[in-house]
């Protein structure tokens, strides 16, 4: 009986050893699968990121070419795609650069008399890059004026006057301030402004 008990214990330890080996093999297999999966994900993300960078550069070149050729439709198309890509995280664009893209789009829309559509892009350009002040505010004022929103133009023109008066060492700035003041007066007297 002792032999049977010993054999049972010996068989049990062999069986336990067998299960431990199998468990190690399973664990090693699972770890290997996880490592391979992480590697594949990293490769795919890197490839996706590189593809996005190439597409962003292509669109930026397209925007530049369209801007240089005064191709308003091309500017609006490329700018819109870049803006959408920045919004959804596809493209990495700084706020300053994105502000400039909005400004290009707004100016192109203004040049094709799509004034109401241009206004939000002028506003977004200024919000993203306050250094675009005169260009964005001036464009917004013109778009609003041309869209028939004349009374809403006055606060923008007042802001432009204040900004121009801050520049004391430039004679053009004082001329611009005087022109904006004349436009305010013209609008208030139901006359045509100089846009």
In terms of topology, how is this protein built?
Layout: H1 2-68, H2 72-87, H3 95-111, H4 115-128, H5 133-146, H6 150-166, H7 171-188
CATH class of the largest domain: Mainly Alpha
Order of helices and strands: HHHHHHH
Report the strand count: 0
Radius of gyration: 33 Å
Helicity range: over 70%
Distance between the termini: 112 Å
Describe it for me?
The protein is mainly α. The chain folds into two domains: 2-148, Serine Threonine Protein Phosphatase 5, Tetratricopeptide repeat (Alpha Horseshoe); 153-195, no CATH class. It is 84% helix and 0% strand. It contains seven helices and no strands. Helix 3 packs antiparallel against helix 4 (115-128), helix 4 runs antiparallel to helix 5 and helix 5 packs antiparallel against helix 6 (150-166). The longest helix is centred in the N-terminal third of the chain and has 67 residues, at 2-68. It is elongated and about 105 Å long.
